[in-house]
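Attaching the record inline, Q. Sequence:
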Amino acid sequence: MKAWTCGRIFNQLVKAKIPGKSSLLRLIVHLGALIPISLLLYDYRIDNLTANPIQEITFRTGKTTLVMLCLTLACSPIYSFLKYRPALNMRRTLGLYTFFYVSLHFLTFVVLDYGLNLGLIYEAIFEKPYALVGFSAFLILLPMAVTSTKGWQRRLGKNWKRLHRWIYAAGGLAVVHYSWAVKSDIREPIAYGIVVALLLLLRVPRVKKATHALFDRMRTGQPPALARVATK
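Structure, as predicted:
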C-alpha cells in the first residue's frame, strides 16, 4: 500500500456523490438540534429535573448553546478545508438553533429565576460578572440572528460579514460565562474554550494557508513533507 493512500480514500469519501446528501444532512441537523429540548420537555413532564429544576434548565440550555455555537463555527473550516459544501449550507440553520437555545437560557434567567423583576435582573446582571459576560454574548448573537436572512445580507453588503465575525467574540464570552458560572470544576469550559480557540486560529492567514496545503495533499494523495522525508 503506497504512502498516504489514506489521503486518497479520504478524498473519495468527501467527494462521494450520495443522492439527497444535503437533504439527509439537513434532516440529521434538525433532529440532532431538537434532541436537547425534547429531552428537557420529557424530563419536565416526568418530574426529572433534579431538586433544583431552574438551575438544571439553565445548565442544559446554556451547554446546548455552546455546542451549537461550536458546530456553527466549524461549518466554514469544514467547507474551506474539505470542500464539503453541505456543511456551509448548514451554518445558518445551526446559527439559528444557537440563538434559539441562548434565548431559552436567557428567558430561564429573567422569567423563571427572577420572575421578570427588572430591579433584581438589573442587579444580577451588573453585580455578577458571569451574568454580565453571558448577557454580552446574548446581545452579540441577537443582531446576528436578526440579520441572518439573504435580504439582510444584501442590505448590509460587506458589513454583513464584519457583523457576523463577532460570533467568535460571542464564543469566547460564552466560554468565560460558563467557566465563571461553574466556579469549581472548569475542565469542561476549558475544553470548549480550546475548541473555540482552535476554530479561531484556523482563520489566521498563515495557519489557514498551512492547513489548506495539508488538506490539498490529502486530497491528491501526496504525502506531506515529513512523510516524504521518512519514506526516503
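The chain has one domain: 28-220. Residues 189 and 225 are 35 Å apart (CA to CA).

More tomorrow.
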